[in-house]
Amino acid sequence: SGLGFNGYSDNWGLYVTQPWIRTSRARVDVRLNAGQQFLTDKYPDVFASNSSPRGRKQVNIGSAAITGSVADLPGGLTGFGLVGTTGNVGLRSEFSRDISGDANSGGQFARFNYQINHDQQVWGPFSFYAGVNGQLANNNL
User: Fold this and answer.
1) d(CA 49, CA 45)
2) I need a surface site. Which of 53, 74, 96, 121 has the fewest CB within 10 A?
């Protein structure tokens, strides 16, 4: 970027999905995930004091999710999702520990994500969509 902030990540992940409910009007799936992220953040030299302005982090995560959809009203479809995630952010460089210390963004974390939405055909090619989503976390992510 023009300001000198950039970075990259290497990731791997595994998941398994099990259909839980399958009917003509509804489907619900259960999914388990696990993975790792290896993050490298590059900061402008102005942020460097005694160390390289390169932050390195390792994130280990596991999650369980329930997602699905229901055809509830004629011409409408309601979708939903609940995801619980737990993990650990390992600060792998001195610079990451320095810059993340004030934010308390390293170590164990848990978060809960939720979403619900509805898409309703109104007339001809027109439809109405509404959705809500959010996240609750026990730590600064």
Assistant:
1) 9
2) 74
